[in-house]
Amino acid sequence: MTRGGRRAGFRACEDTMVETSQETAATLSRVDGDAALRKIAARLVPFLIICYFAAYLDRVNLGFAAASMNASLGFSPTVFGWGAGVFFLGYALCETPSNLILHRTGARRWIARIMISWGLASGLMAFVWNETSFYALRFILGATEAGFFPGVILYITYWFPRLKRAQIFSWFLIAIPLSTVVGAPLSGMTLTLTDGLLGLHGWQWLFILETLPSILLGVASWFYLTDCPAQAHWLSAEERDWLQDVLEKEQRDAPESETHVFWPALKDPRNLLLGFSYFGVVLALYGVNLWLPQIVAGFGFEPVAAGFVTALPYLIGTAAMIFWGWRSDRTAERYGHTMSAALLTALGLVGAGLATNAIVSIIAVTVAVCGTLATIPAFWALTTQRISGARAAASIAIINSIGHIAGFIGPYAVGWLKDNTGGFSSALFALSLGPILCAALTAATALRDRG
């Protein structure tokens, strides 16, 4: 048994790669690498998409519940925006330690813990009764979910070479628009059909029913996920050796793979540039996502119809994200793909702020959503191309934590601006500054990386 078989977690992958890299070139050359990667993608990616779908739905179902919940509990737009955003304070505070624990213990154990605990926290949202309980449960939900997204990003780096990652990231991230494409109509119907059932409001049933998939998937992940290639008995021995050889060569070439990682990663100027670049993306992502159902409802749509209209930009955005991730891999270019998609986001947000009717506004929001979703896979492929090992665990978590501070600022800023202006136009203009910041800092990262 190899050391990878005796030790749990991602660190076992590093040990085993060193051992298997001694395989002869003749044996490795017989492996069809693309076929092996397709097999890995078919095994892991659909399950990860479903898990992230559940995570994202539990994160943003608040937006669908907002109108009826706010009316029931007497919350103002500012209170709602603060509660929507405080999730990301708990998320950012706990993310780096959570990701380092995941790196040591492995995806199977830690993702199971994350999903079950956030599922329970999300279900308890059905029983908030005032502002304090609302803020507290949103903070707890963020803390319990922390580590899932950066852990999966890290997990993907242990299975796929660098030049394949943008497309894999785009497929994984399809859960973001999918949670709206499926979740918006589903949430609208749930709100309508369950209102008053057993004396509970529809928004309470929404939280209760949508928490169940997270708990069930958390249990399933314990049995289904494989921590690293060395433990993948569903691959042939030759395929495992080929993959470990490829990844080990990339790890040797990575300039940043130290063992003692937290403070070096936190002080790394590249991580700070990328963190605040991602801040700009997240500002637009959640500023729109958590408020779009209310923007659409403001045009006079009923809950079910509003759900379908809300889903439309994300349906189109899904295609844009997959295409842009594929193109980034095909051209092996990350910086330009990130910057151009971010600028498209800013253009769409400005257009939505200037729009004077529902059709033009939805078209502009669709452009913004396409740009936002297309930015993310190229950004994470750029982020992970120079790091590996424990340094990757710390860096990914730090970048994601900095970025998700915007998840607090964006929703709160939208709520505050709506309270003070009576509309969403000024909020959309403000959100457009985020992707502009992303494009500028990505350009600065390109200049730094190219020396």
The count of strands amounts to 0
Please state the CA-atom Rg, rounded to the nearest Å.
22 Å
Mean pLDDT: 83
Structural class, from secondary structure content? mainly alpha
How far the N terminus sits from the C terminus, by CA atoms, comes to: 44 Å
Helix content: over 70%
Helix count, DSSP H or I runs of 4 or more residues: 22
Helix-strand pattern? HHHHHHHHHHHHHHHHHHHHHH
Query: Percent of residues in beta strands?
Result: under 5%
Biggest sheet character: none
Structure description:
The protein is an all-alpha fold and 451 residues long. The chain is 81% helix and 0% strand. 59% of the residues are buried. Helix 9 crosses helix 19, helix 11 runs antiparallel to helix 17 and helix 15 runs antiparallel to helix 22. The N terminus is likely disordered.
Describe, in short, the structure shown.
This protein is an all-alpha fold.
List its salient traits.
451 residues, mainly alpha, 22 helices
Write the layout of secondary structure elements.
Layout: H1 3-6, H2 11-20, H3 25-29, H4 33-73, H5 77-105, H6 107-124, H7 131-145, H8 148-157, H9 165-172, H10 175-181, H11 183-194, H12 202-224, H13 237-253, H14 262-267, H15 269-289, H16 292-297, H17 303-331, H18 335-354, H19 358-384, H20 389-421, H21 425-431, H22 433-449
Helix pairs in contact: 2-13, 4-5, 4-6, 4-10, 4-11, 4-12, 5-6, 5-7, 5-8, 5-20, 6-7, 6-8, 6-12, 8-20, 9-17, 9-19, 10-17, 11-12, 11-17, 15-19, 15-20, 15-22, 17-19, 18-19, 18-21, 18-22, 20-21
